[in-house]
Design goal:
single chain; 368 residues; alpha/beta; TIM Barrel; eight-stranded parallel β-barrel; 11 helices; 10 strands
Length: 368
């Protein structure tokens, strides 16, 4: 007959194993990695990275921010110089399929139609789609500025814009052989501007949710899911999150208006705020998205485990997992990851900065 001490030890061991199983990264439905698509010269190196790093770390979702880095046939006028070919995309499709990695393309829709002093391809080629044509791009960009210019937006009510962008969406989803599409939709500062002849005076939350519905419904025609960043659905003032990681122009009320079958990518980089709970309680699927701070990312990962372990039966499936975000192109990240680029030294410690996307990625997705 087992002694009481033995029984207690067995019980503790069982509970420990159970906790470890619950807190296993492989228990998360989404184990994601999001990065800018490689340029043509780095495709082979990125394929090597998928084989040797993403797959062994059990990544099952890869989002590539393509935008105009593809040789579009529907609108060749929107291609970047030196854009990826169909054959190169198919190489990426093949390696992801080999490792059961869901490959999802992203094109920034609505916002992020410019960056600092540079207008992106859509508004450069089709300037009449601009929500704020009276705001001119500066020769030298500074923030803050009198125009409140961070990034331009297209006008969601322009009668011609969706014909063009949906051509791109359909083509890139087809070549990626993807059942989902990431539309960006983050950091939208220009929407429903008073001087816009179509949007002026309209409710910004309704405009924002209307654009999400329009994209979602278009994707649904081919059984594709819409993914978006979640910042514009958070109230920056009430939460104290401010204008970058949340909305200060009243789009946050759209959280009650958007379709429930979208995936919300909830990014927070400076603090591990617990906003996934808000999205889940609104009936939305959510994944947590860190960037460069390993300590914060590990707290966010533990939070995701805790949400799933303590949630009701109805809520648990909405906590979908974690996704590492990298805000550079693949080539720059590979140089960092493999030590080609050396981080600067932290003057307070005398050691290289540890707050890097590569370190964050390694912390939350250890190699198996």
């Amino acid at each position: 007959m087992k002694s009481l001490a033995t029984i207690v030890l067995l019980l503790v061991a069982t509970l420990t194993v159970s906790a470890q199983q619950k807190n296993n990264i492989d228990s998360l439905p989404v184990r994601g990695f999001c990065i800018g698509s490689p340029n043509a010269s780095r495709v082979e190196a990125f394929i090597k990275f998928i084989n040797e790093e993403l797959a062994p770390r059990h990544i099952n979702t890869l989002i590539l921010r393509v935008d105009y880095n593809y040789q579009y046939k529907s609108h060749p006028e929107l291609r970047d110089s030196g854009a990826l070919s169909e054959a190169q995309i198919k190489q990426l499709v093949k390696v992801c399929r080999k490792h059961n990695i869901r490959l999802i393309p992203q094109i920034n829709l609505l916002g992020h139609q410019s960056w600092h002093g540079h207008t992106m391809n859509l508004l450069r080629v089709y300037p009449d789609f601009d929500e704020t044509p009276w705001v001119k791009m500066p020769e030298k960009y500074e923030w803050p500025n009198a125009d409140g210019l961070y990034c331009k937006s297209y006008c969601p009510l322009h009668p011609g814009v969706h014909k063009v962008v949906f051509d791109l969406v359909d083509e890139i989803c087809d070549v990626f052989e993807s059942n989902a599409f990431h539309a960006g939709m983050d950091e939208v500062f220009y929407i429903g501007e008073d001087k816009c002849p179509r949007c002026g005076g309209r409710d910004k939350a309704e405009l924002y949710s209307g654009e999400i519905w329009k994209i979602r419904n278009h994707l649904a025609e081919k059984d594709r899911q819409l993914w978006i960043w979640g910042d514009r659905l958070l109230d920056g003032k009430t939460t104290g999150l401010g204008m970058w990681e949340a909305s200060m122009n009243n789009t946050h009320r759209a959280v009650d208006l958007v379709p429930k079958d979208i995936m919300v990518c909830d990014w927070h980089y400076e603090r591990p705020d617990k906003t996934p709970v808000l999205f889940a309680m609104k009936g939305l699927n959510v994944i947590t998205c860190p960037w460069r701070m390993p300590d914060n990312a590990l707290l966010q990962l533990q939070d995701m485990f805790d949400y799933r372990n303590t949630a009701t039966r109805e809520m648990k499936p909405r906590y979908q997992g974690m996704m590492q975000t990298v805000w550079s192109d693949a080539g720059s990240f590979l140089d960092e990851f493999y030590g080609v680029w050396k981080p600067p030294v932290d003057t307070t410690t005398g050691k290289p900065y540890k707050d890097l996307p590569s370190n964050c990625f390694k912390a939350i997705f250890p190699k198996k």
